[in-house]
Amino acid sequence: MKFVSKKESITSLSTPCLVLPVFSQGKQAYLTEIFDKANNKQIAAVLKQGDATGKAGNTLLLQMPTGSKTKRVLLVGVGEQGKTTADDFNKAVSASINALKNLPIKAICSALLSVDVIAKDGEWKVHHIVLKSREALYQYTETLTTSAPDASVLEKCQLLTISDYSAKEIENTAATVSSIANGIDSTKKLADLPGNICTPTYLANTAMALGKKHRSLKVTVLDEDEMEKLGMGSLLSVSRGSREPAKLITMEYNGGPKSQKPIVIVGKGLTFDAGGISIKPSSAMDEMKYDMCGGASVFGVMQVCAELDLPINVVGVVPSSENLPDGDANKPGDIVTSMAGLTIEILNTDAEGRLILCDALTYSAKFKPDVVVDIATLTGACVIALGKHATGLLSNNDELANELLDAGIKAGDKAWQLPLWDEYKPQLKSNFADLANIGGPAGGTITAACFLSRFTEDYKWAHLDIAGTAWRSGAEKGATGRPVHMLSQFILDRC
Ligand code: BES
Ligand code: MN
Ligand code: ZN
């Protein structure tokens, strides 16, 4: 959907549908009032009747008389006048798109910018109209033959201008957020694909295709032989139990000056995690197709950088493998040697994410990074600690941690910091190797990060555990596209 600004009197709009905010109490928004005066106070009557409630997210579609230039009006509730919260506004945007997306309507005109939202400005409103609309329009179609999407989807949304945010500002913000939404959609599409389609080779091919589409992206894929030569014994030990060959995907975007050190983002691309010999229980195991969401988010962010032509250097690295039980799979007690030279005792083959990430993190040093951020569905413990609302954040640098936390707040894609204290590190002691790959049940998210921290001592690094935030379970099962927005905001803030 394309978002444009529209500077015109609300009473003379030629549009298939006008989206008009209504309050549950108090005087109506000024655009709604003006429109209603010119239309026999019909809206006031409908509100009085109680058909539209004005409650945040409540919608009512009105057909206008034959011959009207405005064919339909969608009344959408935004809560009590003067008390519209950010959440009310978001609900109203989502509900209005949901109410219209299956109708034969290609374009709409929205008056939602005329609503005052507590503590939010015009930029925030445009940002969230685009974001929430795009979220409501997202549809997974890849492997569906029966419920193919309606051909006539919404294509265009005009935003009626307001006095304190210019038409130009509206369009600039809408363009930036549209690109972020494109990145989020690509991440979700990739993540929602099943493990038998989205293999490490599929991800590698997707990266090559992205590189073809955007000339500014330089894509390289290392195969197992090349990784062997680099000494990536930890990563390769995980893929040995699978028939699908592992891939190490690199996407380099150089929009900044040559002398500028890049941001490196490293995403766990485990295309299916059965646990290996330490096999997982069967319940909800299908969701382990989402164990590549960190990798998928790297794809999304690289796409955002390329689409927006950002003046900055960013490198995306995605180590990709399956984790399956097999005669050649890692066994508990096996010891492998990482690219960094550290030996690792694999006490649980299900703690495989850190095994593929550690070699990718060592490899990342070759880009002489300013900072490295890894993104991974790393621990079930993170879901227990933070639930599905906050991404876990751990870092060896507080300044970097704060930058990411701030970006998360701005983007509404929040993280919460956990400690990475030395006190936790002895939990990874092994009698037979330099470190063990698990640290016991206590503080599982922290000890996982402690493991990674052994491989990131040479640069500023942050780790995002997205096990709770990357996808939803149950009836709403599907990828969320997090933390593409947080990372895009983090990069934009650095531009
Ligand atoms: N991919 C999982 C983490 C995960 C579990 C994400 C559940 C989302 C939901 C990871 O590879 C894993 O299996 N971690 C183990 C580590 C444990 C063996 C120390 C876990 O969390 O159980
Ligand atoms: Mn696992
Ligand atoms: Zn995993």
Topology:
Layout: E1 2-6, E2 18-22, H1 30-38, H2 42-49, E3 59-63, E4 72-77, H3 86-100, E5 107-110, H4 122-137, E6 156-160, H5 167-192, H6 200-213, E7 217-222, H7 224-229, H8 233-239, E8 247-254, E9 263-267, E10 269-273, H9 293-308, E11 313-323, E12 334-337, E13 343-346, H10 353-364, E14 371-376, H11 380-386, E15 391-395, H12 398-411, E16 415-417, E17 435-436, H13 444-453, E18 460-465, E19 471-472, E20 478-479, H14 484-494
Bound molecules: ligand BES, manganese (II) ion and zinc ion (ZN).
Zinc ion (ZN) binds at residues 270, 273, 291, 352-353.
Quick recap:
With 495 residues, the chain is α/β, with parallel strands linked by helices. The protein contains 14 helices and 20 strands.
Task: Find the structural class using helix and strand composition.
Answer: alpha/beta
The portion of residues assigned to helices is: 25-40%
In whole angstroms, the N-to-C terminal distance is: 26 Å
CATH topology of the largest domain: Aminopeptidase
Total DSSP helices: 14
Description of the molecule:
It is a single chain. With 495 residues, the chain is of the alpha/beta class. The protein folds into 2 domains: 2-159, Leucine Aminopeptidase, subunit E, domain 1 (3-Layer(aba) Sandwich); 182-494, Aminopeptidase (3-Layer(aba) Sandwich), CATH 3.40.630.10. 35% of the residues lie in helices and 20% in strands. Strands 7, 8, 9, 10, 11, 14, 15, 16 and 18 form a 9-stranded mixed β-sheet that branches. Helix 9 (293-308) runs parallel beside helix 14. It is elongated. The mean pLDDT is 97. Residues 273, 275, 323, 350, 352 line the site of manganese (II) ion. Residues 270, 273, 291, 352-353 line the site of zinc ion.
